[in-house]
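re the bet — no i am not wrong, look at it urself. input seq straight from the record:
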Amino acid sequence: MTGPRAGFERRVQGALDAIPSRIPVVLGGCGSGRTWLLHRLRERAPRGTVQYVDVERCASTPERFLAALTSSSPFPWHGDHTPPTSARGAFDSALQFLATASAPGGTPCTFLLDEALELRTFESFPGLRHVLRELLTTLTASQNHFLLTTRYTARAHRLLRDATARYEVMHMPPLAASDVDDLLVPVLTGFSQLPPTDRDDLSRSIQVLADGRSSYVLAIGEAMSQMGRGAEPISALAALLSPGGVLDRGCRFSYELRLHRARGYGALKAILEILAAEEPLNLTEISIRLRRTPGSTKDYLSWLEDVDLVASRQKRYSFADPLLRVWVRLHCRPLPPSQEDVAREVQQYAFARLPQSVPAATPEPLAEAPVMVYAGAEAEDRKGWGIIEID
């Protein structure tokens, strides 16, 4: 990549390579490219020096997590191989392994912990009340290198509030048009043969429609390839958001996952439906539509912010992911949307986001659905609690 994502990747690698190394904590929503970044870093590292761990997939019980962590590791396990007799003992052994494992020659190794905050699930086991804080303390004292990611921005900020300056918060930047161009070359048939002006216009349109999220860009590019010559991004987006489409399934996963990580499931769904109909709204406007008191509504909104489903700007609330809002409008109702419903909603979404000088084509009815430029600051802003945060 040659755009802002390349610069971001270099900053992450620079934090890992610093002496002493810093611990990047990469924050970004669903589909923003966090996992893609970790795989890129692993592929570029010398063989046997890096371990990638999908915490979300293997954090079941502390005992099973320890077994998964050590059995899949390229690093030897120097600890006690006696099976732990308690959840507390298993977690202590896992922390010891992270802190003391080494690469060939005894040099420090690197752990890439994807969705690291999912270790919080262990706090329901006896003797494990402060799992995440223990994790941060252990990683800080270790000579090894660590990179953590999470989709839960608000929770990460609270957790790192009192952390040491070794932790460096980095927000995953949205894809710029130049990044989109690089992603589309291998997935969109004929893209590289387009005239430069047409290619740039298409990259910018897809970047805007995808809200700069890697997974959305790739989905649109692949759908356009499947649709064949003459396909355009708005029709591809309509196909993807139709029942059974790739983005229908992806948005459903993001929606349900975050709601199940929050409190007040039913009320939170109701607020999301209210904001899907109209946004932004302030607290009073939402409480009136919800028919609840402002106090209880404020609690619900704070729980939605806690899992980054909504964002508040100047005391007005809206969806953090604009495409998820389109999905809620289409799919959170008694009957699946018709082809006309999907075409209408996608057309309205595209018209609101694309420049007026670039007319949005109306997507054709579908016979059957196939089963923001980054301008982040370069300066590092050191917060009052000692964490370096890069926006």
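see?? The domain at 4-173+377-390 is CATH 3.40.50.300 (Rossmann fold). told u. also Confidence is low (pLDDT under 50) at residues 365-391. so pay up
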